[in-house]
Design brief:
The protein folds into two domains: 186 residues, no CATH class; 138 residues, Galactose-binding domain-like (Jelly Rolls). Helices cover 41% and strands 20% of the residues. It is built from eight helices and seven strands; from the N terminus they run ααααααααβββββββ. Strands 1, 2, 3, 4, 5, 6 and 7 form a seven-stranded antiparallel sheet that branches.
Length: 382
């Protein structure tokens, strides 16, 4: 008995429920990039996050990215079926070869997920777009594949750039082939002079009502997103400088304290040398005010490369204030510190390093913040 007859629902779930990885191709990549670009000003930036509507804009970007990832393939498929049905009802439809090329290019261009094997969809049909668009697609997609396999299929910055370039060549093929479809539609319907469009009171009222409804929907979406458990527990880490991508600021808040994580994004290493007049700093920004009563700091676990002089600071009323209980001077031995501090509530706390043991770089394995259940005291200037 054919497999389809044995368990049609299982096959349907596997076929239509399949979700390939997103965020590395075309529209999902742009939506994800837009979401990441808006996250900092909407949640962490001192001035921008206070502006009305910033959270709404961020929530809209998050929702758009998630919705496209979840439902994009079904919408694209439905639109393609409708277009194919309409085109083939024409008296003189475009050649089937052109239609197949448009379908493959459209789905690849709009795909909410991506795998390298997807590029094969367009290989037979790209030639229908002409020599130049086809040559661009073959050359750039080939270079993209070379970069990916040369780097063991790792999505490096270079790979993302080649992914975007390949996506644009797919768009070029799609645009060229779509002109053939548009020409067939234009030939089927002779041009007629249309009456000029004008705004009437009814249309203006309808547009105003739709605008109000859209704004209300966006605002409700933002409230729903912000009420998600853990939403305001997110944190963002920046630094005065970073040696390279193997020692990012975020590595100091990833939960890893073992030295084996060093050099594989498990700790922060400054690019500059900390001095009294030019300190290096690691800043942690919270999406909502955070009360801190205990701080644990892990420097690089070797006294020769530990932190020599530093202090933690919190931000209040647009100024930085020292947490005196965390001040350390002329240390040449310790690599870990546990500080019980007077409770402060702030959206920004930073580690300010003024000297390193080797007088070269600031090195931090991990920073941990905690509260002890004592009553909260708002951070105010001393």
């Amino acid at each position: 008995m054919p497999f389809l007859a044995q368990d049609p629902w299982l096959i349907a779930r596997k076929v239509f429920g399949y979700a390939s990885p997103g965020d590395a191709w075309g529209i999902p990549l742009l939506l994800h990039t837009n979401e990441e670009a808006l996250r900092f000003p909407a949640l962490y930036a001192e001035t921008w996050s206070a502006l009305p509507g910033m959270l709404d804009v961020y929530a809209l970007a998050v929702t758009a990215a998630k919705a496209y990832s979840a439902w994009g393939k079904f919408v694209i498929l439905a639109v393609m079926v409708l277009i194919a049905h309409g085109v083939n009802r024409l008296r003189n439809p475009p050649p089937l070869f052109i239609q197949c090329g448009v379908s493959a290019a459209a789905f690849l261009f709009c795909s909410p997920g991506f795998g390298l094997q997807y590029l094969a969809w367009l290989v037979p049909w790209a030639v229908a777009a002409g020599a130049l668009p086809a040559a661009l697609f073959y050359a750039i997609s080939g270079a993209f594949l070379y970069v990916m396999y040369a780097h063991n299929l790792q999505w490096t910055g270079m790979a993302m750039a080649w992914s975007l370039a390949t996506w644009l060549t797919v768009g070029t093929v799609l645009l060229t082939l779509s002109r053939r479809i548009a020409a067939a539609l234009a030939a089927e319907r002779p041009t007629r002079r249309r009456a000029g469009w004008r705004m009437t009171p009814a249309r203006a009222a309808a547009a105003a009502a739709l605008t109000v409804m859209l704004i209300a929907l966006i605002h409700a979406n933002a409230r729903a997103l912000s009420s998600t458990p853990g939403f305001y527990d997110q944190q963002f880490v920046t630094a005065s400088s970073t040696y390279n991508g193997d020692y990012p600021p975020g590595g100091a808040l990833d939960g890893r304290t073992d030295v084996t994580a060093w050099g594989i994004r498990g700790g922060w290493n400054s690019a500059g040398t900390p001095r009294d007049d030019t300190p290096e700093f690691l800043t942690v920004l919270f999406a909502a005010p955070r009360t801190v009563r205990h701080i644990t700091l892990h420097a690089y676990p070797d006294p020769h490369f530990t932190l020599r002089s530093f202090v933690f600071q919190y931000r209040a009323e647009r100024q930085w204030h020292d947490i005196e209980a965390t001040r350390v001077r002329d240390n040449l031995e310790a690599t870990r510190w546990d500080f019980d501090v007077p409770a402060v509530t702030s959206r920004q706390i930073r580690l300010l390093v003024s000297r390193a043991a080797d007088d070269e770089y600031a090195r931090v394995m991990e920073v941990e913040f905690a509260g002890d259940g004592a009553p909260s005291i708002a951070a105010t200037p001393p």
